[in-house]
User: Fold these one by one.
Assistant:
Number 1:
Amino acid sequence: MHGSPHPSAGRLATPPVRGLDDLGRTRVMGVLNVTPDSFSDGGTFARPADAVRAGRAMLAAGADVIDVGGESTRPGAGRVHEAEEHARVVPVVTELVAAGGVVSVDTTRASVAAAALDAGAALVNDVSGGARPELLALVAERGVPYVLMHARGPSADMTSRAVYTDVVAEVVTELRGRLDAVLAAGIDLGSVIVDPGIGFAKNAAHNWTLLAHLDALAVLERPLLVGTSRKTFLGRLLAGPDGTPRPVDDREDATQATTALAAAAGVWGVRVHAVRPAADAVRVARAWTTGEAWKEPTT
Ligand code: PMM
């Protein structure tokens, strides 16, 4: 079709998110983990000052959102103390908001989310899948955008929950159930972004099946966020002849492939460690799907 294609052309419709502008393309969310032990090293900083420096670089590279987390979600990871999570996250949020960034807070704790929102964070990214009523109540009260990610329980034992008969149908049904709980807690439907939770209680085959059927999540009628960046399933796909998975710091090219494909499929956002190549990939995907060389509107 010639003329003016819909800005979010692709397989998935992208309903607006209350409180966030429509950028006319997939958003790039930069991963900023202020943790000594996240599963991948890129995007992971032990000290808040290093995280702030990296976050500023992400903004300069074109990050639309920076997702600041203070607790590792790596399979098998234990919990950090609340005060420690707070101390990791809040100074980084404050500095990046002051630098003009849109910041999301990746936490399952209401107290950490509240402090991050007070410091200027604009979104809450909840990898618990809405399991914490206090967090839902806070998001409802503040009226901020909320990422509802599919998970089947804490990271510590999520591998044992990676059992599905039909992963696509089950993830859709479980997300729908969690969405109902989120709405019952008073969160506005227009504030919710859903995420299939790649790698959370899912093995490599489950992840690929979900990515092949992202359009099935369209029945939830909410924008999609997808996080594939440097995850283990990419390492397994690209394993060497002896079966050794590709190491985490050598999964970046594959991540750009998943980023371009997810953007071409019409997802609302991609969560990535390397912002600059992802920002290029989403622009390429936009031009590819619309057949239009498109210039970013200047503000
Ligand atoms: N993945 C991780 C952490 N937080 N949040 C959302 N919404 N979606 C994800 O896929 C996701 C997430 C784990 O990856 P990391 O250790 O690189 O942050």
Number 2:
Amino acid sequence: MSELKLLSVVSEIYPLVKTGGLADVAGALPAALKAQGVAVRTLVPGYPAVMAALGAREEAFYFDHLFGAPARLYAATAAGLDLFVIDAPHLYDRPGGPYTGTDGRDYVDNAQRFAALGAVASGIGLGLVPGFVPDVVHAHDWQAGLAPAYLHYASGRRPGTVMSIHNIAFQGQFPASVAPLLGLPAHAFSMGGIEYYGTVGYLKAGLQLADRITTVSPGYAAEILQPEAGMGLEGLLNQRRGVLSGILNGLDAAAWDPAADSLLPSPFDAKRLDARAANKAALQARFGLPQEPDTLLFGVVSRLSWQKGLDLLMDGLGTLIDIGAQLVVLGSGDPQLTERYAGSARVNPGRVGVQFGYDEELAHLIQAGSDALLVPSRFEPCGLTQLAALRYGALPVVARVGGLADTVIDVNEMARASGVGTGVQFSPVTVPALQNALTRTHALWQDKTLWRTLQRNAMATDVSWDRAARAYAELFRNLARERAA
Ligand code: ADP
């Protein structure tokens, strides 16, 4: 098997910079792909956190002019990742997040910031760095969406291109006035190119012009062909469904290993489930809840947003209280939802505990200490929290959508009879259905032997990256072969 060279293009990567699951995927795939004979280099913007983390670095190219000022491209390593980093202080050296400033608003020049990412990716694809000429360029989400477009409109031999959708809700849409700034031919601003309902669409461009399209679960791949989930792109996706596929994400097995998790008071595994109890007690103490081993404890680790359906949990909280359960929530995001959750903790002391902000250690403790993890998402491309929950024996209670439906086996009568259930699914994504799921979970909780079986089933689920990496590697190889022919 000859080695395939892959350029991964992404706007965030764990552990350097992360706002969501995208970073986890970008950070974990390179190692998993390496085992499949794919050599990955990842192109990322040189945000302050990235520049600070670089180990040995080498200038790979100098740009006299990259969207407004000179810039450098470095080949570097950081946190075990092989990177190309765009050192363009005028675009990336600012306080705040990767997409928004300290005021929480999108940067006004995001169109230029991520056009630069796409343009540099295209340059590397065309041989800018002689030591690494990729066979395939893999663009993640709208921020990398112009990479396939630049390559499409370039002349000469180009690598294969793959556009991956991690969340179709984020589309990177900019006013038409951006089009002339991009350095693409004028005819690129058309329906068959980067134009999107009269605007410039970065994700649309990638979906239109990449050789292949993937998304992060088979379920979501089917859903985005429908208007409810396609969010305006369903027409294009239906035209291109022949090159669209869904590949389920895995979980970083080293970062999420209950038997060797240094963030836990009491590491455990499927054979030592008793050791889990100390984590539950620590979690209850952390949130000021009574340390009752027999009380069913639900956990939430999530962005607080409409997508995640956490308003439904607030609306249905009465049921959780009525069945005598406890709830701990770690989340950040929407200020109104934050206020509602803070209020529910005030009204239900000893029953509901909340913490706002981003906290990796607490996320691990919630997975290890809660009995069930709630994920009532309205839509979920793949979802990583339920994968961690499976691995940590917190039974996922999930909406039957997208990747949640693909990864959790509902404990219905059939699943119970054949001993394969791993969690609870509910549908439709409504308050009554969620309440019903809470009640069902509570009924399962009464049978401690059954609960243990379900926990062991959950923990035995293959959530590794190997499976996903095999599927990606096959797709990349087929594409590279096709381009070579
Ligand atoms: P999304 O990418 O839509 O936010 P995912 O479930 O795919 O959702 O990925 C979320 C990732 O972020 C998981 O690794 C989860 O553990 C983590 N996470 C989400 N919210 C928090 C938080 N408040 N603190 C720590 N980790 C969080």
Number 3:
Amino acid sequence: MALRCWRWWHWSAWPRSRPPPSGSTPSRSRTPLGFCQQFSTQEQTPQICVVGSGPAGFYTAQHLLKHHPRACVDIFEKQLVPFGLVRFGVAPDHPEVKNVINTFTQTARSDRCAFHGNVVVGRDVTVPELREAYHAVVLSYGAEDNQALEIPGEELPGVFSARAFVGWYNGLPENRELAPDLSCDTAVILGQGNVALDVARILLTPPEHLEELREMIQLPGTRPILDPADFLGLQDRIKEVPRPRKRLTELLLRTATEKPGVEEAARQASASRAWGLRFFRSPKQVLPSADGRQVAGIRLAVTRLEQGVGEATRAVPTGDVEDLPCGLVLSSIGYKSRPIDPSVPFDPKLGIIPNVDGRVMNVPGLYCSGWVKRGPTGVITTTMTDSFLTSQILLQDLKAGQLPSGPRPGYAAIKALLSSRGVWPVSFSDWEKLDAEEVSRGQGTGKPREKLLDPQEMLRLLGR
Ligand code: FAD
């Protein structure tokens, strides 16, 4: 995908904390001591922990709390703030998608749920330590890595993963220093998935539209460039395509092949920015500038379809190449999960934790949900369904007596371990203070919030 001429505007977000001052509240307390109440043996309290506070973590917790009257759920999160990709991935002009945060907040406010941010599982506390402290552990830590292009020039300044770029415009602290140079007039996005389209739309959108946070019906001031040759023969095959994709394909086909009406033609003629979708191209090399210090273009191999049956159809290189000048290359060819702990099985090829319906293979009491369970595909509702299923399976195992019997210490044990290691978690009420600060700063600039970027500042605001 190639984009021309944009302007830019940056949004924003934080480190490790020092111990809270004496007297500061710990995480949302369930007993005066902050731990889940133990009942008699017959009414034992299942102590469950979830790793990751994105949609998978929160939906898993929500389902467990709803379907077990006594279960207590601790959510561990490596960032200082909750909500995973809902905060750091979903594009800023999709505020209605971010509304799921209201449901997650209700879950976090339950007396049987506690959020512990600023805890990196696998570093600050190990998965075996969590398994020792809880009856069950659910891994919901998403897919934080990205697929590499594996082509020459990939390391040049000006080439970024869409993961990092999205993190930058969404205020993810680890990406706040990214500083992409947006003064060039062409950007190439490799990939045409949802993330690639989000990135394209954000690059093309005038800042004032993002500030108003209105959903875009059309991209103002832009015109599409689609090559009708790429769509040859598609008309005949459109009938076979599943419904949502059919509508999208029809729209593209119309845009590429039909002459626009007078009004639309005038709008396009006055557009200062353009975007296009390029099909049958595969990245071959990132081309350096003359001094070798910056990206200057990308070499694409031209491909054609080699007919096979169904999935066996493959794109093969024709031998021709095409050079496309650009100042920015964003690779959007997929996210992938990382292994979290040597004790947890991991399939490096699929980039997931091997599991059956959410039960981690060969590790009783260990479960997974979300992108780390099924791979980085699907939207929030897909993640919800998948997380409810994992939770259901866990509760079935609990009922069938397949989880450890006898009481477990839960957070009491982990809290002691963390403080012995100098790790001081932040609670959900801490997040609510930061949230209030962001909203109040946003009011001054006409935005729903101004994200805090600096971790040190966030900790200072929490009195740490
Ligand atoms: P995540 O949301 O990534 O949550 C994982 C959490 O685990 C994170 O908070 C992370 O910090 C934490 N974590 C990671 N490692 C550790 C560790 N070691 N210890 C403790 N915590 C850890 N879906 C839609 O429905 N609509 C959209 O508009 C939309 N836009 C998207 C835009 C982008 C750029 C992307 C990438 C995805 C988008 N999605 C959208 C998809 C949606 O975000 C995912 O389906 C969903 O977030 C997956 O949930 P998850 O909980 O598995 O992963």
Number 4:
Amino acid sequence: MKKYIIRGGNKLSGEITISGAKNVALKAIVASCLTNEEVILENVPRISDVHYMIEMVRGFGGQVIQDGNTLRITVKSIANYRLPLETAVKMRASSLFFAPFIVRCKKAEIPNPGGDRIGARRIDMHIEGLTKMGVSIVNREDGYFYASANSLKGANYTFHKNTHTGTEQMILAAVLAEGSTVLENCADEPEINELIELLNLMGADVKREENRRILICGVEKLSGARYKIKSDRNEAVTFAIASALTGGNVWLKEVNLEFMGAFVKEFEKAGGKVEKNESGSLRFYIQDKVSPTEIVTKIYPGFMTDWQGPWCVLMTQADGESKIHETIYEDRFQYVHELKKMGAEIELFNPPVDNPEDFYNFNSDDCTKDTRHAIRIKGKTDLNNAVLSMMDLRAGATLVLAALIARGETIIYGVEQIERGYEDFDKRLKKLGADIEYIEE
Ligand code: EPU
């Protein structure tokens, strides 16, 4: 069992480089399996989700050479089109292997990634879209999708709701399909554009048009490429809040502010300032005091669902009542119970919503009578130490942030969750002055 022991109260200061984006790296690894030539990926974070992806690629016969943050991937052929259940269900990105398996083996056996600690996380639109491309897919009782197709056929498909990985699934399938594919109501998340950039470097023909439309002309084959992954906007927000919360002075290098507009807007409303130095690094700080805010999580370019946990910790320090309304996942407030142990005054509730089917991205069928979609946070509250458990990746970061400003020594179990998405999180916080110890029992 892995845990952190954090003694709160230290102001963070120094400089930190934001890592490459997890949610690009995982998909770039899948894209690399669409060619038999070498793909070199740079700035890949050394996190456990990447490790599991590498393990799966090696498992079906690919060669992956990892040298620091660079991966050299060569998949000459795919020897086994069935993903191992235990590794694959650890992360949603594993469900993206349909395209490489079908293109190269005509078959794919992929476990249903299923629900996790933040929601049901269906892939029904992925399956519907792939079916339109001529893939026959059966979901058996053993939890696997069994897919087969002699070839992938270009198709027109309209997503009925926003889906980030669903859009990526269809792009990955369409690049080597016969003919053209037109995708409507696609997700606009910038991580998808990086996947498109990589695929086009590999010889694909993918164009994003206006009005959430993507056009893909299938090509005969893809070739090798070299691609550098841009920095992670979730990690940038986590460190920005860590610095502001602790009243610190941390300069963040390699931040892509362009994709964090909604965060900066709310941060400024909350009394925050963003300063840029000559070398382009950014410092996020609170000028005077934290003001309460009302947030509704939204698809890009809105305020990301992944930011709401860390934001909640910042709002515990605001003078007055704040609200956060989560619209992407039906169950992403599991960290609230843990923050309450630290003395945070947070209440879960369901705000009235006119047209829930349109307003929420999740399916209302996945909610129970106990599911709550919003929280009220009363501030300002001094947080105290507690013994906590991380439920998922972003909830883990949320608890660490809370512990950094709590009185006394906080113990947080479930560090495996943080390791899924943040490279050397404790070591980097320690370098910035946090009193954090990592213990493996
Ligand atoms: N949904 C469906 N059916 C589908 C697809 C999605 O009902 O076929 C629902 C989901 O259940 C969810 C909502 O639509 O309620 C949004 O799902 P989406 O497909 O857009 O997101 P995702 O693939 O589950 C990715 C990231 C998330 C990030 C979201 C939003 C990856 C591997 N994951 O998730 O990242 O929060 O997009 O941008 O790219 C994280 O990094 O911690 C994380 C959860």
